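Morning. Coffee machine broken again, so started the prediction first thing and wrote up yesterday's gels while waiting. Chain of 319 residues, entered below exactly as on the submission form.
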Amino acid sequence: MSELVGRTIALELVRVTEAAALAASRWTGRGDKESVERVATSAMHTMLQRIAMKGTVVIGRGNKGEKIPWLYVGEQVGAAERPALDVAVEPVDGIRLTAEGWPGAVSLAAWAEQGTLFNPGPLRYMEKLAVGPEARDVVDLNAPVAENLSRIAQAKRCAVSDLTIMVLDRPRHIPLIAEARAAGARIRLIRDGDVAAALYTALPNSGIDVLMGIGGAREAVLSACALCCLGGEILCRPYVRDDVERQYLERIQVAEDQVLSSVDLARGEDIVFVATGVTDGEILKGVKYSSTCTQLHSVVACSATKTLRTIYTTIQAVG
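Came back before lunch.
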């Protein structure tokens, strides 16, 4: 992609996440997760089909024929034959957060050159460790929690007690949380939304230093796209639950204990990542409505130009 084409597509991608965020935000706090997912996915799909590209969905809303008929893995999106791109989407990272009116929900999308994004297939979960640029070269997924925290603190020139870790609030993370507490770090438990958490580790002034724990494999690829653009790192290891997942990893020649880095998950040189707030989060504000306008808050990151742009969109009310 030329720089001009890349910038144009990046701006188009903002419109994609904005459309999904707008649709989902209307269902904030209404207790209907299915409607949040359905309207956001439909809105995102409609916008993607208008973009001058040939996109293939690599990270989407499941497989063809499942409950939502849009943005399934393998679907072709776009309105042109070039450029050919891999597309990764999460119409709402935090469907439950939106439905129940909690903070931290975002709409996410990314793309890269065709054939460069990792396809997790049936693999549902991965163990993850994500950090920002300062600590990208010092973390080790095979090291104990306390050792990683010590290395991160040293790289950031602070004490371990100054670090804040984001962890999904799940029973499986009880041992991890105990180790982090014993090391002296601060912990922020989140109900959902670990892509946003990974993103925040690399954003200035977010107050989040590390993401740790087991989360979604699809979300790991989106996180890798974000951190490749922002200079951070995410290390992941497959968390295998059954023979179907085990056989898939054998087929793609990935070992069960293999540690995958951000560049293993997102190998492209021209990666664009966009996030738009649905509900208020650590950095991104949620969709705001008034009698005169609607306001949205997004970030756009590009790996080729090493840029991070913050975009505030105001839609004036009609009439």
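The mean pLDDT is 93. Going to sketch it on the whiteboard this afternoon.
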